[in-house]
Specification:
single chain; three-stranded antiparallel sheet; three-stranded mixed sheet; 12 helices; about 45% helix; globular
Length: about 350
């Protein structure tokens, strides 16, 4: 009896010091929207899953399912909210039809650079506003920023864009708020997952497409079908990915387990950005050898695109209270950030 009491006391002491000795293990299925071989976009999901298992000593195990293997990419939010899967990894801008304010957390035309966005997200109330935005639309999820990359290209075309008129009648795959801008200009905008884009270009289902940064676009082979890759990526200066977790699953996690998820996703955000920044220059340098014409959209066209973008953002803000609140928060932050950004960094041409 004395030995039993002693062992019980030791077990109790361990529980008190660790806070999670008798916690239930977490076993999460996590469908992803992007193939995990895509640098910075899909690779963080696989890294986070591995890191969580290692860091938690097996307390958290996340099984990653490649796009379409468990849940269609565009169904991830609903599946996580409904509890059909415990977690998902996606670009949340796909759900702008269900949650109008969501693109502001995913990619904003003529918006923030990645460092500015994560500054606002972590320290400007962005994370908290994202949880509120989902809850206000009835979704039972906890969202964790879990990856970010720099600008996308402005897309792949058979002919260059030289005037706004060139968008009129163009059948193009374009995501998020940028798609609404092009619709205003007369383009026929469609959405489809990245894995379907090569075939759609090849068959002429679409005339042009954007998807991601050069290091990713070359893997998907767009340059084999069309030869004009345009810059800058005015519609997505940052692209943010998130780990969505069913809120009931999140509630049953211990504080230690939650801290590991948050830390792993924060690390993945840094790693994703670093991977893209490391690889994109080399890919661009090799484009000419592959017959790719990497052109800049004329400045006068960009100025007009920005004007239409401002119209779209104001219209969206007038229709949805969450959009208005988040948009105003970002705009307020950018007023002060621009002072720092324009004065502190050496101009690119120097």
């Amino acid at each position: 009896m004395k030995l039993l009491k002693a062992l019980t006391g030791v077990a109790g002491a361990i529980a008190l010091t660790t806070g999670s000795a008798f916690a239930d293990d977490l076993r999460w299925k996590m469908p992803v929207a992007f193939a995990t071989n895509l640098p910075g976009l899909g690779s963080p999901a696989a890294w986070v899953a591995d890191n969580l298992t290692t860091a938690s000593d097996g307390s958290i195990q996340v099984r990653v399912y490649e796009p379409g293997k468990l849940v269609p990419p565009f169904d991830i939010l609903q599946s996580v909210s409904d509890g059909k899967v415990s977690a998902g990894y996606t670009w949340i801008g796909y759900d702008q039809g269900k949650v109008p304010a969501i693109p502001l957390f995913a990619a904003v035309p003529f918006g923030m650079k990645p460092p500015a966005y994560i500054g606002w997200y972590y320290f400007g109330g962005g994370h908290e506003m994202l949880q509120e935005t989902y809850a206000n639309k009835g979704f039972n999820v906890h969202a964790q920023l879990c990856g970010i990359i720099g600008p996308e290209t402005a897309g792949w075309y058979s002919e260059p864009i030289e005037t706004l008129e060139d968008y009129k009648g163009l059948k193009i795959r374009f995501a998020g708020l940028g798609g609404k801008v092009l619709e205003k200009l007369g383009a026929s905008v469609t959405m489809m997952p990245g894995g379907e884009l090569y075939q759609a270009l090849e068959k002429g289902t679409i005339d042009a497409t954007e998807f991601s940064m050069p290091a990713i676009d070359q893997i998907l082979g767009f340059n084999q079908v069309v030869k004009y890759n345009l810059f800058p990526g005015w519609h997505q200066q940052f692209t943010a990915q998130y780990m969505l977790i069913n809120k009931d699953e999140w509630a049953r996690a211990t504080e230690a387990q939650k801290a590991l998820v948050e830390a792993s996703c924060t690390a993945a955000t840094t790693r994703g950005l670093a991977e893209g920044e490391y690889k994109n220059g080399k890919v661009l340098a090799e484009f000419q050898d592959k017959g790719v014409q990497a052109d800049q959209i004329p400045r006068e066209v960009l100025l007009k695109l920005r004007e239409v973008t401002e119209e779209v953002l104001e219209e969206e803000a007038s229709k949805d209270a969450d959009f208005k609140r988040v948009y105003e928060s970002q705009q307020e932050f950018m007023e002060s950030y621009k002072i720092w950004d324009t004065r502190a960094y050496v101009p690119a041409d120097l």
